[in-house]
Amino acid sequence: MGWGGSVQAMIHTLRANKDLLRKRKVLFERDRTYGQVKKRYIKASAGIIKGPSASQSDLKKIRERIARQRKKEIIITAFTTIITITIVVIGVHLLYKNTVSQNLQKWKGKEVDLKRQRAKEYKTNIEEGLKKMEAGNYFFAIGNFSEALNNIPNDSLAEYQRAYAYCLLCKTEKKGCERANELVNTLCLKYPESLTYDILKSNFLKKY
Question: Between 20 and 30 A from 136 (CA), which of 27, 48, 92, 156?
């Protein structure tokens, strides 16, 4: 009995669902033909309210407003570009100036150090040359005085000592006489107001 009742209840349920299916409402009805779609579109478009068309004066105002806005944008862009370029140029100039200043300071520092080094070497060569002159080593003394002139060119003291060393070398060892005469003559022309080199020539280079 229990099984038969269940089957009967299921049959009643299916019939009730079938009756409800016939009474359902379609929310989105699909048109079957192009004509139905066209009719629906014409019916819907008929209710659209068309606005008034713009007059020539309105169009002119719109164009003028757009032109003013465009002109304003161009001015702002140009002004921004000029400011940017100015800032970049100033920055590059300051950077270049700072770099040049630093390099100049370094160069001046190196130049000062080089002058100090040359002055130190000059002093050492003069002192060593004078010691060798006292010891009678005129040939090596000439080398020291020549090095002194390499460090400080046209130094009158080093020029005189080198010429004097050549004269002593010529007198004592009969060497370097032509070079001694050449140096003394050159220095006589270079320092015409001085009689020092004339004395050297008369004392050591009479044959020349």
Answer: 156
For residue 164, pLDDT over 80 is answered with: yes
Give pTM, 2 decimals.
0.51
CA–CA dist 184, 204 (Å, integer): 10
Q: Is the pLDDT of residue 207 over 80?
A: no
Burial (CB < 10 A; 0-12, 13-18, 19+), residue 151, is: buried
Residue 84: what pLDDT?
Answer: 92
- Burial of 126 by CB count in 10 Å (0-12 exposed, 13-18 middle, 19+ buried)? buried
Distances (CA, A) of 175 to 149, 169, 184: 21, 6, 15
**pLDDT at res. 1:** 46
CA 111/CA 117 separation, integer angstroms: 10
Taking the C-alpha atoms of residue 74 and residue 86, their distance in angstroms, rounded to an integer, is 18
